[in-house]
Structures are given as C-alpha cells and as structure tokens.
Write a structure and sequence with these properties.
The protein is mainly alpha-helical. Helices cover 72% and strands 1% of the residues. The N and C termini lie far apart (65 Å).
Length: 497
C-alpha cells in the first residue's frame, strides 16, 4: 500500500474519532445520559484511587476501633473460643465469626495491626472494588445520570473518611453484600447466597436486606429452590461458626447476634434530640420495630410485584437470547463473506506502477484543461447489517429498587445510627431519590442534606431532626411512585384483556 494511502486512512480515522467523541453532544451525553455510565466507570475509579491516596497521605488517621479489632483477633488466635472472653479496649466482641477470620488475616498482613498505613491502602482497594460493583449495577439499570453518581461519590467527606481513615468492619460487610447482589443479578444464585451469608457473618446489619432477598428467591426460583438457597445460607453460618458453636454455642449466639444490644447515646446520628433515658428505653425500641414491620407490610405487595415482573423478563430473556445469538451469527457470517469478496476484488483490480502513473498524469491533464470541478457522486456502499441488541439487563431496575427500599426502611427505623452506618445505604441513595417524582433540584437537595447531617460531628438536635425529615420525604416519594407504578401496570393489563 502506498504511503499516501496509509496517511489518508490514518487521517480519516482521526477525523472519524473527532467527529464521534470531540463534540458538544458527546460531552453532554457523558454528563446526562445513563447509558454512558459504563463508559465513565474506569475514569471514576481512577479518580477515586488518586483522591483516596491523597486523603491517606495528607489527612491524619483517627483511631476508633482498629486496636480493639486487633485485640479481639489476638484473643481468638491465642485459642480463645468463648465469645464472652473475646474483648477489646472498646468492649466485648459483638460481631459474627467471619469478622474474626477477615480481621485475623488483616492482623497478620499488617504486622499484628501495627502497620496502619498498609491497612488503609487495603481499605482503599476494598472501596474501589465495592464502587465498581455499585457502578456495574447502576450501569445495568440505565436509570441514573452520570453526574448524579459523580456528585454523590466525589463529594462525600463521611464515606471517604469511613473507608480510608477509620478501618471499620462495615465496608467489608457491604463489599460482600454487593458481590452477592451482582451475582444475584447475573442469576448465579448459589454463590450469591454464599456471599450474602458471609456478609451477614461479618456484621448483622446485612439482615436488613433479608426480606427483599427472600422475595427475590421466591419469585425467581420458586419455593423448592428457595428452600435450597436458604439452606445454603444456613449451612455457611454453621460452617463459619462451627469452632464456636461446638464449644461455647450460647456465648457465640448471644455475643454475635445480640438483637437487644444497647447503643451508646454519644455516637448517635439520628436520635441526638432524645435524652439518654428515652434513647435506651425498651418500649421506644419496640415501637420502632412495630413501625418497621408496618412499613415493610405497606411495601411488601408492590415490591413482590416488581420482583415478579423482573423474574418474567428474565424468563423472556432466556427464551430470546438463543434466537438473538443465532441471528447475530448469521449477520457476522454475511459480513465476513462480504469482506472476503471486497478483498478479492481489490487484489484482482490492483494496478501496476506504470498504470497508476498514467492515470495520475491523465487526471492532472484534465484538471489543467477544465479546472477543479465537483467530483462525480460515488455510488453508496451497501451498509453492513447491524447486530441485534436488546439490553435485557435494564430489567435489573425492577429488582434493585425493592432491595434498596427494604434496606432503607430498616435504616430509617434503626434504634441508632452511628457514623460508620452511613455506608449501609449511601450507595443506594441516588437510585432511591431518582425513583421519586420530585423535581431534579429537590432530589439533589435531599442527597445534599442527608450528607450534611452525616457530616455533623458531634450530631446536633437540628441535624438529627433534619435527617429524619429527609428520610421521610424520600420514603413518601418512593412509596407514592411505587403504588402509582402498580396502578398503571394493572390498568395496562385490563386494557390488554
């Protein structure tokens, strides 16, 4: 191939690239189009890596629970299996056994917990993996504009602090949860159940998702397979808890799954406006539990319908995917044959150097005689047939909403929220707010105010009350839209019948 032809081809490629990507329309799509989130994912992760490293290097580490975790692990590694005897400087061990295994591994990696800087870098890795898992789910839904994700992720002082500067066990539990959710959305049920159970084995708050996961099992798998998956979850708990269940079972269950544990009032984010006596009152706790159950019952039916429709769409996907794959194979074969034919024609029509020289001189003579004129229109090439594409994964919207909503209700009704608990629901807030019918500016305002409340240290009466108000607006907006969607679906069904 002649150098001039190569140069022209290269120039054409550069022009095509510029025409496609260096345009105002493309930049706007990167900001506002949910379809472009997958394109931006690795840019977001790279920026977050740089930001978190900067935080670790520039911001002083604050010790809260890390030493206590290491002391609890040291007791376990020294042979203590009685949970009532495993203690740290902040009190007795209150987490299930998989927490001990994870942090015992960190104990060895970080030189018995002394290399805190290394632990911080490990938690940056945990943060990035979890963020990738979250973005993967969001990309499937094609619902949230990229700018919303960027704003919420990059501007959260509290979340960066929890991961990079505090080393709590909550991020590890939430990481395993999002691994499980991704596996469930990929219909890898058994390994998803294992990961979900391991998440529970790190911290019990993951059980807030349990009602939603149960409904997902039933609608997607049926009752028999649901029992199998629940058995998998139970088996995992028995296996990881075996050393303790076989020696001191009562102490283990009481210590790691203590539902009646009293939280310290000084750390509360959501109930600062209550006095200590009311905050620790058992009747108050019982009242919150009743409200929790009432809210779950209110959303249970529409959530179940969402899961049911999700399962139906996945069934359709299983039916259509083989046909689509076969169609695309035929298209690929046609394109391949066409390319071979073009190549053959080019080879057959290859001119000798003398012929090329004659044609060039002939064209030059015509130009001298008649001047530059508009070139004759070239016949349009027949376009290659495009592959058949259906984004079935968008149906993940129907599953993700009820999963996030059920957990959100649990957070709203929690007896106390400590600062590290923010990540129980932080990554779901953009999705939940964008499901409502509020104006875009109000949705962003809610997210901003929730972040503001979590950044107040110590919390104040105002920040606690404001947090409840934001939660209430968000919850009401979601439930109203949820029931509206169900009504519209029923009307559509009636019209079809």
């Amino acid at each position: 191939m002649a150098p001039t032809k190569k140069k022209a081809e290269k120039k054409g490629k550069v022009q095509a690239f510029c025409a496609k990507y260096l345009t105002v329309e493309f930049v706007k799509s990167l900001i506002f189009s949910p379809e472009k989130l997958s394109f931006l994912t690795y840019f977001i992760l790279f920026a977050e890596l740089a930001l978190n490293i900067l935080i670790v290097v520039k911001v002083k580490y604050t010790e809260i629970d890390w030493i206590a975790y290491m002391q609890e692990c040291e007791g376990f590694l020294n042979g203590t299996l009685d949970y009532s005897q495993l203690k740290g400087e902040t009190g007795p061990l209150v987490y299930p056994s998989f927490f001990l295994y994870i942090y015992s591994l960190l104990y060895f990696i970080t030189s018995r917990g002394s290399n805190v800087r290394l632990a911080q870098y490990i938690f940056i890795a945990i943060y990035l993996v979890q963020l990738w898992l979250v973005l993967r789910l969001y990309s499937k839904t094609r619902k949230i504009p990229p700018y919303v994700i960027v704003l919420s992720v990059f501007t959260s002082y509290r979340v960066h602090s929890i991961y990079s500067l505090r080393l709590f066990n909550d991020p590890v539990a939430v990481l395993f949860l999002y691994i499980a959710l991704n596996l469930f959305m990929d219909r890898k049920w058994t390994i998803g159940s294992i990961m979900f159970s391991l998440a529970v084995g790190i911290k019990m708050n993951i059980l807030l998702f349990a009602p939603a996961i149960l409904m997902l099992y039933i609608t997607s798998l049926g009752y028999i397979k649901t029992i199998i998956q629940l058995s998998v979850c139970a088996a995992v708990q028995l296996i990881i808890g075996a050393p303790f269940l076989l020696t001191y079972p009562v102490e283990y269950i009481k210590g790691s799954f203590d539902l009646g544990r009293i939280f310290e009032h000084k750390w509360t984010v959501n109930y600062r406006f209550l006095d200590r006596e009311m905050f620790e009152n058992r009747m108050f706790h019982l009242g919150l539990l009743v409200v929790h159950l009432i809210l779950i019952s209110i959303v249970a039916k529409p959530c179940y319908l969402f899961f049911k429709n999700y399962a139906r769409l996945r069934t359709l996907q299983a039916q259509f995917e083989p046909q689509i794959a076969a169609e695309n194979r035929e298209i690929e074969e046609l394109v391949r044959k066409k390319m071979k034919k073009v190549k053959k024609n080019v080879e057959e029509e290859e001119l000798s150097p003398e012929q090329k020289k004659f044609i060039e001189s002939f064209e030059k003579g015509l130009k001298n005689q008649f001047g530059d004129q508009q070139p004759m229109p070239q016949p349009k090439e027949e376009e290659d047939p495009k592959k058949v594409e259906i984004h079935f994964d968008q149906c993940v919207q129907l599953a993700l909403l009820p999963i996030f909503l059920i957990n959100f209700i649990g957070v709203v009704c929690s007896r106390s929220l400590h600062y590290q608990f923010y990540i129980w629901y932080f990554h779901s807030l953009p999705y939940l707010s964008w499901f409502t019918e509020y104006h875009t500016s109000f949705k962003i305002l809610i997210l901003f105010l929730i972040e503001f409340c979590w950044n107040q240290y110590p919390s104040t009466n105002f920040s606690s009350i404001l947090l409840h108000i934001c939660h209430l607006f968000l919850l009401v907006g979601i439930i109203r839209k949820l029931y509206k969607e169900v009504r519209l679906a029923k009307l559509a069904t009636k019209k079809e019948n």
